[in-house]
Amino acid sequence: MKTPPLLTDLYQLTMLQAYLEGGLTETASFEFFVRRLPPRRGFLLAAGLEQVLDYLEGLRFGEAELQWLRDSGRFSADFVDWLAAFRFTGDVDAMPEGTVCFADEPILRVTAPLPQAQLVESRIINLLHFQTLIASKAARCVLAAPGRLLVDFGLRRAHGAEAGLLAARACYIAGFDGTATVEAGRLWGIPVYGTMAHSFIQAHATEEEAFERFARAQPDNVVLLIDTYDTEAAARKVVALAPRLAAEGIRIRAVRIDSGDLAEHARRVRAILDAGGLAETRIFASGNLDEYALAKLAAQAPIDGFGVGTRMDTSADAPYLDCAYKLQEYAGRPRRKRSEGKATWPGRKQVYRRHADGRMAGDLLTLADEAAEGEPLLAPAMRGGRRLAATDLAAARARARAQLAALPEGVRDLEAPAPYPVAVAPALRRLADALDREAH
Q1: 146-313 CATH fold
Q2: DSSP structure class, residue 341
Q3: How many Cβ atoms sit within 10 Å of the Cβ of residue 301?
Q4: How many helices and strands, by DSSP H and E, does the chain display?
Q5: Which residues form the Nicotinate phosphoribosyltransferase N-terminal domain (predicted)?
Q6: Alpha helix locations (H) across 157-290?
Q7: Which member of 73, 221, 280, 294 has the lowest number of beta carbons within 10 Å of its beta carbon?
Q8: 101 by DSSP, 3-state: which?
């Protein structure tokens, strides 16, 4: 997905021209982090690094963009010429995708000449914010419905095509089994799932005819939508159809319920299917689901899988993260923002994580050149403008699975999560105090 170079905020370009005219081109380090977790969130799951690296490697200004900048009258000819030759040559250190993280922890650090590191701010925030937001909610769904099939159904309600596509990827990293979004399957090899819409049923004279025609058209993927008219009556029609299809080697894999009291319908449908000899036919449910609904349904109903859409791909209960990409070091000197309610910890930083008895026991936020006990979470991802390795989606999924399993039980709670301990190293506190005493 190539990003147009002008998909940025105007102030990035106006600052760049001023930086260049003022000779401010020494090395800078910026860090992306989340200031505070949304309500009822005990953790986040990092995602989006692959798209950030793609963006940095491919960022170029073409003649059409350069001419628009010239015609705007806002920028000097020297500045536009500088953009014409732009290439990102910096370094990136980041938490690998699928890493559990918390407030104030740097998820990604960019170190590059100041104009380069500044220019890429808006798109980096855009990419990391969205996928981390969605992956974090998807992880809660995974924890709420263990052992159930989970499929991303959110494309049609996502806020734009890119959002729908990247949401499928973020959900997969978090542990979803697949997506209904076909392009995500083509791009990333994510398993693709799909059944039928109510329109397919309505287009036929009878439900029986619709079921049979779909089964013959998709003999290896017979999942029948049964709530268009009368859910339980449709389940009985499925039972009646099954022997005729079985004689031809076609098995009804599942039925889908998309409306009404999903738990009660599932119980009744399960009884009908079992009595009709279809004990192996699974029940799949969808319809305005989120982690809270999944937790209740997983505990109360014989539902084998869920399609999670609107509330997932919009993160409806927490639709944004209070995140930032801030300057932490310039020209070899640490920098600290002191704005009320938005102060930052200065300098290039690392996060060390301790474990005890197989569980995460606490994180330490410290300076990048200060060693500490535990596992360092930020790792080199790009050097000299070149990525060090392609992101392995399977590895990101495995990492997320292992880290979610290692979360303390209280932190996993959906309603009132216990706070996870993130300490700030004494050396970092001393540096912040020293900077606060300086005149500005």
Answers
A1: TIM Barrel (3.20.20)
A2: T
A3: 20
A4: 17, 19
A5: 6-128
A6: 161-174, 182-188, 198-202, 207-217, 231-246, 262-275
A7: 73
A8: strand
Q: Which residue ranges make up each domain of the chain?
A: 10-134+318-436, 146-313
Residue 155: is it exposed, middle or buried by C-beta count within 10 angstroms (0-12/13-18/19+)?
buried
135 close to 107: Cβ distance less than 8 angstroms: no
Q: What is the pLDDT along the chain (440 residues), one digit of tens a residue?
A: 689 999 999 999 999 999 999 999 999 999 999 999 999 999 999 999 999 999 999 999 999 999 999 999 999 999 999 999 999 999 999 999 999 999 999 999 999 999 999 999 999 999 999 999 999 999 999 999 999 999 999 999 999 999 999 999 999 999 999 999 999 999 999 999 998 999 999 999 999 999 999 999 999 999 999 999 999 999 999 999 999 999 999 999 999 999 999 999 999 999 999 999 999 999 999 999 999 999 999 999 999 999 999 999 999 999 999 999 999 999 999 999 998 888 999 999 999 999 999 999 999 999 999 999 999 999 999 999 999 998 899 999 999 999 999 999 999 999 999 999 999 999 999 999 999 999 77
Query: Does this model's pTM top 0.85?
Result: yes
